[in-house]
Amino acid sequence: TQFHSYGSTGGSDKWPDGHPSDMNWNEIFRQIQDKNINYIFLKLNEECNKMVQEFEKLYNSAAPEGKKKKFGGEFMHHKIDLNPENFLKVTTKTISQTVSKTVKTFGSSMKKTDGGNAANQ
After folding, report:
1. Which is more confident, 81 or 50?
2. What are the pLDDT digits (tens) for 53-80?
3. Residue 27 vs residues 67, 89, 113: alpha-carbon distances, Å
4. How far apart are CA 61 and CA 35, in angstroms?
5. Under the phi-then-psi rule, with left for phi > 0, alpha for psi from -120 to 50, and beta for the rest, what region is 66?
6. Rounded to whole angstroms, how far apart are CA atoms 80 and 87?
7. Phi, psi of 6 (to 5 degrees)
8. What is the pLDDT of residue 114?
9. Which pLDDT value is given to residue 113?
10. Residue 30 predicted with pLDDT over 80
11. What is the mean pLDDT of residues 43-62?
């Protein structure tokens, strides 16, 4: 299937080519890029590896030329487990990094466009 690799579990997918009512994945990732959204994939186990690889390819191919450098759009993935403490650590760290990066990116953009006046208001 496009996004699943079941390895030794012998799992299966009822819709190997996607559900008939699914949106086109290229379109989904184009819309994510258009909105300057960082995509964060929290991976539960190794069976998600193929999905991570395919989503990252789709995310990166949807970015207009030069956009990633300007806005810092990024595909990130982190392995987590079902231990609530570990899940909370990874999730909190990821959110913190994303917010920090967004503030830096858009804060420096505002300083360039208004001469730094937005920070002084």
Report:
1. 50
2. 988 988 888 877 655 544 556 788 878 8
3. 17, 32, 31
4. 15
5. left
6. 6
7. -85, -10
8. 54
9. 54
10. yes
11. 86
86 token code pair:
């570990």
Nearest partner of 33 among 68, 71, 63, judged by Cα: 63
Amino acid sitting at position 90: V
DSSP letters for 34-48:
HTT--EEEEE-SGGG
**Residue carrying the six token digits 């008939």:** 20
Q: What is the DSSP string of the chain?
A: --S---GGG----S-TT--TTPPPHHHHHHHHHHTT--EEEEE-SGGGHHHHHHHHHHHHHHSPTTHHHHH---EEEEE--S-HHHHHHHHHHHHHHHHHHHHHHHHHHHHHHHTTGGGG-
Q: Which two tokens stand for residue 46?
A: 């190794």
Q: How many CB atoms lie within 10 A of CB 27?
A: 11
